[in-house]
């Protein structure tokens, strides 16, 4: 076993023990359960104006590019994932989530009008934990590790952000660098839509990503974080034999509801900018 592999295994074991003591998302508090009891908890907070009307019991998802999606709820909450200075939605979101891997996943100068800027890491590498209700949207996170440029491990360097609205749970895997443990999967609970990095090199390799996606068993997988068509096609070619249907859309918008989730697990490719 190489030194790098040993370091990675040791780091993962350390995090697993830490999760056992105080997991970022407790088994009893998985995504489907961490929802406010009352729709009026956030009634006094200022509301963002959605880019487009979203029907009740629906969530609108728009692929902006790279790892950035715009999530819009029927209640008018807007979220930009992996918010950065290169690829941004046209509107100012009410919530911005960020990860630390490199500058295409976070911003040094987020728009000051953003109400909630959620960093998926801490500079001291201690865990960061979100469990918050913003209007009709719940946001949580599960921390994972990332590699540094020397092959070492940065503990808690990435967050899988989870969003729930209209009884739809969306998981943004961020800059995921390793597979998930059974405890991770139990903490995440039911996931309906996975936003997955599929570059196969800077993040998790293709085989590892397929393992994660099969373990999550989400009805919808949306690829992100690929730099050209050949990279995407390589992932799709490997994933085509895994009982998933593949759909390529010409529109970057996807309107989601529990009633319209596909009966057969489906990879939906949305157009977006890549670099």
Description:
Keywords: Signal. This is Zn-dependent hydrolase. With 275 residues, the chain is an alpha/beta fold. It has a single domain, classed as Ribonuclease Z/Hydroxyacylglutathione hydrolase-like (Metallo-beta-lactamase, Chain A). It is built from 4 helices and 14 strands. It has helices at 3-21, 182-188, 206-216, 229-239; strands spanning 59-65, 68-73, 78-80, 95-98, 116-119, 131-134, 137-147, 153-165, 168-172, 193-197, 220-224, 245-248, 253-256, 266-269. Strands 6-7-8-9-10-11-14-12 form an 8-stranded mixed beta sheet, with helices on one face. It has a 6-stranded mixed beta sheet with strand order 5-4-3-2-1-13, with no helix packed on it. The chain is globular, with a radius of gyration of 18 Å. It starts with a helix and ends in a 6-residue tail after the last strand.
What's the end-to-end separation, in Å? Answer: 35 Å
Instruction: Name the CATH superfamily classification.
Output: Ribonuclease Z/Hydroxyacylglutathione hydrolase-like
Side by side, the strands of the main sheet go: 6-7-8-9-10-11-14-12
Q: In terms of structural class, how would the helical and strand content be classed?
A: alpha/beta
Number of strands: 14
Organism: Ancylobacter novellus (strain ATCC 8093 / DSM 506 / JCM 20403 / CCM 1077 / IAM 12100 / NBRC 12443 / NCIMB 10456)
Keywords: Signal
Protein name: Zn-dependent hydrolase
Pfam families: Lactamase_B_3
